[in-house]
Amino acid sequence: xxxxxxxxxxxxxxxxxxxxxxxxxxxxxxxxxxxxxxxxxxxxxxxxxxxxxxxxxxxxxxxxxxxxxxxxxxxxxxxxxxxxxxxxxxxxxxxxxxxxxxxxxxxxxxxxxxxxxxxxxxxxxxxxxxxxxxxxxxxxxxxxxxxxxxxxxxxxxxxxxxxxxxxxxxxxxxxxxxxxxxxxxxxxxxxxxxxx
Length: 196
Prior knowledge:
The protein is mainly α. Helices cover 84% and strands 0% of the residues. The chain is built from seven helices and no strands. 27% of the residues are buried. Residues 6-15 have low confidence and may be disordered.
């Protein structure tokens, strides 16, 4: 009733195209839009994470290094407690990984796939470094207790600042590399989508 004869032929034609393994042109444009959107979000989230790690490397940790033990322990634990929140963990830390994976799945038959896959590996490596090195050091400092009642000198001495800073630089470079790879993949995808 609501379908015209021409619409029926278009739908049957699209079904036959799909059955042959071809993608109808209008599906292709929708997939290109979704692919570009996922790559754009992955690039932005990865850049955000690289920026967070870079701020720790270039401002936060060097600044704290110049403070007394009580200030160091108090400020570090306060910032660590604040950063562990749903927005940071969901959108940034894990979001960059998940959206990069989605971008890779949407790019399976595209020229950008190797770049997206490499970015995913680098982002995963940054997550592993964070969980294996930085988080345990953070948790050990928080577990020591209230800075007003503990031996802050002993807590700071037990916290391996050099190790934390070294591995923060590692994860910063991993995320910067992933950001660059995703930016290149986004360029390739945009160029490919613009071609007839």
